[in-house]
Amino acid sequence: MFAFYVNFILFYIIVQNCGCEKYIVVKEPVSWFQALINCKNAGMELASVNSEEESKALDKYLTDNGYIYGYWLAGTNLGDGSYYWATTGRKVIYTNWLSGQPDNAIMEYNNKEGEHCIQLGMPTYSLKPNGWNDLGCECKLSYICQKEETCYSDENII
Ligand SMILES: [Ca+2]
């Protein structure tokens, strides 16, 4: 059993007409690549956000429980330059970028190779952090895994 299971929060969001999504927020910061692997190894997928409804429900949960330094989502433009959800292969259609993002910032921290993975929540950047930023994929962040499930009880449903 690895550390993944030690420090996480479990909750559910009912997405209209899409059943019930089970989410876990893993606080231990890891690179985007490791987050992708860890979610898969837990039988889940790194989270994608496909509608305003899903975005708002997720943001409400994270706001109520305190943002940390943001969370990895499954979006990346490391392929052909467009953003895709790496878990589903679908193009990122619904977006919730923070103002001025994505800026593909060329920084020392990312060896001047730019920013190619989607971070949800950026408290140091905005008083209203519940939007997206592009960030260097090697940065270490908490992350959110999700899995479509049947809802069995009202517990933890927001
Ligand atoms: Ca950025």
TrEMBL record:
Keyword Signal: yes
Keyword Signal: yes
InterPro entries given in the database record: C-type_lectin-like (IPR001304), C-type_lectin-like/link_sf (IPR016186), C-type_lectin/snaclec_domain (IPR050111), CTDL_fold (IPR016187)
Pfam family, one: Lectin_C
N-terminal signal peptide: 1-20
Listed SUPFAM superfamilies: C-type lectin-like
Top-level taxon in the UniProt lineage: Eukaryota
SMART domains membership: CLECT
Domain called C-type lectin: residue spans: 23-146
This protein's UniProt keywords: Signal
Protein name (database record): C-type lectin domain-containing protein
Organism annotation: Rhynchophorus ferrugineus
